[in-house]
């Protein structure tokens, strides 16, 4: 008796599901809420394509900071255990699927596609959300491989503020700062950057002027406030910080070079240079 009851109930439920599905096919898409299965596309590391386009616009508007530079974007592993092998990138939307080539160093450029922007597409990797640290990458021509140019870094900061490519804790105050007008130049904030290799020391060089940056500007704070949200902690040996407001107030120009002594160099310049010479500013 109970088995027959449940058989009839299941049959009725099945009929109801079929009826709902048939009804849904006849209803315009805008009135049917879309549901995505958890653990698939929505679980991927991504940024809104429109935000990335806005970041590209900032680069064009401020190109005078780095006239010979080009803009690329770059991703790093955000924590231990994230493999960069087999990394794949797409611009993806309901009606958009554009593969984006990735360079071996994790850099890429994005095409401008009006249809993808209208489709509210995202720039999506095949990694789980929170796996990657996203950055802008601005490189002027002629800069030595052991150096970065100050104007390039400032332009990276401006681009990053718009594209959400900044290393910061997503606290309301920090998020408000990113929306301010030119926070890179006007706010006394430390911007986190990754060098190409582990850093021993960094010196500011502009013509005959030279100053070794304080050790406190390397490798990040000793005790991160929120380690799970601060994406530089896994690569802290490569981290250096720049406070643009202070440097520009001290008269360092856009063409200033930040020269790196790397940990794997045979003879770091910090050893070869006397403390008095390194302290000149």
TrEMBL record:
Residues 1-24 form the signal peptide. Keywords: Signal. The keyword Signal applies. This is DUF1571 domain-containing protein. It comes from Telluria antibiotica.
């Amino acid at each position: 008796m109970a088995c027959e009851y449940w058989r009839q109930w299941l049959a009725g439920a099945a009929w109801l599901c079929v009826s709902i599905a048939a009804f849904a096919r006849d209803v315009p898409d805008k009135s049917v809420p879309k549901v995505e299965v958890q653990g698939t596309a929505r679980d991927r590391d991504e940024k809104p394509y429109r935000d990335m386009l806005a970041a590209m616009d900032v680069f064009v508007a401020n190109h005078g900071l780095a006239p010979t530079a080009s803009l690329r974007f770059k991703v790093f592993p955000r924590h231990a255990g994230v493999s960069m092998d087999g990394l794949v990138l797409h611009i993806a939307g309901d009606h958009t699927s554009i593969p984006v080539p990735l360079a071996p160093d994790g850099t890429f450029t994005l095409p401008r596609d009006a249809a993808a922007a209208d489709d509210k597409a995202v720039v999506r990797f095949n990694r789980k959300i929170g796996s990657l640290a996203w950055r802008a990458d601005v490189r002027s021509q002629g800069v030595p491989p052991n150096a970065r140019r100050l104007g390039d870094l400032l332009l990276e900061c401006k681009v990053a503020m718009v594209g959400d490519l900044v290393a910061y804790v997503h606290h309301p105050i920090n998020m408000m700062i990113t929306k301010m007008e030119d926070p890179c130049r006007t706010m006394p904030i430390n911007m986190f950057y990754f060098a190409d290799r582990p850093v021993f020391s960094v010196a500011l060089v502009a013509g005959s002027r030279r100053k070794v940056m304080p050790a406190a500007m390397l490798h990040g704070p000793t005790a991160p406030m929120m380690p799970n949200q601060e994406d530089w902690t896994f690569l802290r040996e490569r981290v250096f910080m720049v406070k643009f407001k202070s440097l520009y107030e001290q008269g360092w120009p856009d063409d200033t070079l930040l020269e790196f002594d790397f940990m794997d160099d045979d003879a770091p310049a910090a050893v070869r240079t006397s403390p008095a010479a390194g302290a000149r500013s």
